Amino acid sequence: MNLIEKLLIFPINSIMKTIDISLIITLLFTGLMAGFFFSYTFSVNFGLQKLKDKDYLLAMQNINKEVLNPVFFICFFGALLFCIVSSLLSIDFSSPKFYLILLGALLYIFGVFVITGLQNVPLNNLLETFAIENANKEDLQKMRTIFEAPWIFWNNVRTLSSILSFLFLIASSIK
What we know:
The chain has 175 residues and is mainly α.
């Protein structure tokens, strides 16, 4: 074995187990998603709330289109996939580590993924079908009322869930 193999391959094979690699990837993706939701909650929403109804609705329509990109999908679905994989790889009912990983996974699965599908996506779809350019002032105000408060509430749930998920996963990696 040459020096490069000793430095790069040997430590991975001898020190890192599959669960460790899976957990690192899980931490990366859940950390990125927690940061995404945190940033949105504590900066983007504050800026958007200052916009007039029409501008707010147009901005949200554009954001909802632009977020559907490969990088977001890799992180969003990658966190889901690796939460499940890490949970399955760590099954040991006598180990606190397993329960920390499982709790982190469940928080992401239900508090982020399921909430997104059941709450935020339907609101986004409703907004997408709304013809902003043809709407009068009352219709714009009504749509904003229907959309904004529930969307922000459920996004805050996703923010809290993703942060807690990330924290439980971090705790599981501390020896």
